[in-house]
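To: structure desk
From: M.T.
Subject: fold request, one chain
Message: Could you run this one when you get a chance? Sequence is below, nothing fancy, just the single chain.
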Amino acid sequence: MDPVILVKILIIQRIFGKKSMRLTIKEIETNVAYRWYLGFTFLDKVPHYGTFSKNHRRRFYDTDLFEQIFKRILEIAIKNNLIDHSTLFIDSTHIKANANKNKYINRVIKKDALHFQKELNNKINQQRLAQGKKPIKTH
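Reply: Done. Structure tokens follow.
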């Protein structure tokens, strides 16, 4: 299976909020816009979801391909002045996790997030001091 088609199918799934690959493949079979985007004609057979799943697992498991794609998109957007750095929005929506509380994996995360948090706390404290408020205590 062509890796470009694999990535495009995942993009369709994520952008349009399809909950499963089975549903995504079913939509691709009937949606002309999706077929056009993937380069399929009306007569071309759409890959079976199992074929997609096996190809995806073999090619992209344990890779940072999607992170690289996202970073590249951001670089292009920044280069073309499509991103405004003057304001930061943070979503604090609380969504109940669909997770098993008895099963977890310890992972080491990048230090970038901690650096960002320190930088954000410094900016917040600068604004609070400018407004005559006490700075937020950080640990």
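Reply (cont.): The mean pLDDT is 84. Let me know if you need anything else for the meeting.
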